[in-house]
Amino acid sequence: MINRPKYIKQIEKALKRSPVVAILGPRQCGKTTLARQFSSGRKTFFFDLESSVDDFRLQNPEMALGELTGLIVLDEIQRKPELFNVLRILADRPGKHAKFLILGSASPGIVRYASESLAGRVEFIEVSGFELSETGVMDEKKLWMRGGFPRSFLSKSNENSVKWRENFIQTFLERDLPSLGLKIPAVAMRKFWTMLAHYHGQIWSASDLSRSLGLSDHTIKRYLDLLTGTFMIRQLQPWYENISKRQVKSPKIYFRDSGIFHSFLSIYDKNALMSHPKVGASWEGFAIEETMRALKPADAYFWASHTGAELDLMIISNGKKYGFEYKFSETPKATRSMQIAIEDLNLSHLWIVYPGKQSVKIDKQITVLPLSDLSSIPIAGRTL
Fold it and tell me: Which residue, 10, 93, 198, 261, has fewest beta-carbon neighbours within 10 Å?
């Protein structure tokens, strides 16, 4: 087991500010384990809403929960959305007898219900699989290959990791999606998901996929939003503003977990990965997720013009723009496209993130940075 002190601190601080804290993330990413680690040594009541016993205990939730004090953990909250109104009542009681930690795997419904019922009472924390700061730099290639889902990463063999991911995908399609009330045939969603793997790191085109699958653009977009809402896919939105160049206005698509991405492409070991034509795109997606977790930007975009200039990632902090390019190369260099991005977007700085070990400033506004050093980046005069 890998300890996750960063998240423990986040939860502790959030519960001091808010009566309800929601931990969101994909199935099997370690939310329950994290909640149990946090609750260790604390007076805690744990309810697993997938358990028929706990479901029975909550037949009268206001009475059952209202009598408890301390920390109350509600796991898989998306299964009983009616609890959000109860939590509002309990969170508003004078004296604040209890704090609530709710865990969920499907963000759109939870965020909507929580925002409507618990406005001003809830704080959200998004949890993903393991990240490089938790596994250590020595396991960077292993994390990239297997992905961050704990059981995949911690498997005793690569074969076991591959098998776990295959079972995860099957269970997600055949059980998890139907449990959310989504009546989409597992075969159709698997085919869509598989085809989506070939768009990883590319600009989204609903019409291309709709023609290939014989479905409407609206249905294809609904499938994509579903995978986004369940933390499987990241839609990186484009940045565009009123400047002279024509710019791309469709999102880029990335698998959020590199191990799941590799499974859909039947990449099962390092040799297959290194020889695959998608190796660069795979590393780019892996590195972007690491950047998002390390820096936690409020706003993140990509940028591309129809003349060919582009930027993999742009974040905004304190009104300033910062750029990131991801190069799967031991000797990355500045390009004309980067210079155009700096000028057109008025970037304060641009980092070229690569899988090497040395940080080198190659230009006044451009620094080559190892993936493992992301958390040291100074943004707007401070180190995140």
Answer: 93
Beta bridge partners of 236: 252
- Between CA 200 and CA 255 the distance in angstroms is 6
Does residue 349 surpass a pLDDT of 80? yes
The full length of the chain comes to 384
Determine contact, residues 4/30, Cβ cutoff 8 Å.
yes
Strand 378-379 relative to strand 382-383, pairing: antiparallel
Where would I find the beta strands (DSSP E) of 238-330? 252-255, 299-304, 310-317, 320-326
Is the dihedral angle over the CA atoms 10, 12, 13, 19 positive or is it negative? Answer: positive
Direct distance between the N- and C-terminal alpha carbons of the chain, in angstroms, rounded to an integer:
26
What is the distance between the alpha carbons of residues 44 and 100, in angstroms, rounded to a whole number?
Answer: 10
Average pLDDT over the chain, rounded to an integer: 90
Q: Please name the amino acid found at residue 116.
A: E
Token readout for 43 is 């007076």
Q: Which is more confident, 376 or 350?
A: 350
Two tokens at 183? 């009546």
- pLDDT, one tens digit per residue, over 263-304 is 999 999 999 999 999 999 999 999 999 999 999 998 899 998
DSSP code, position 306: T
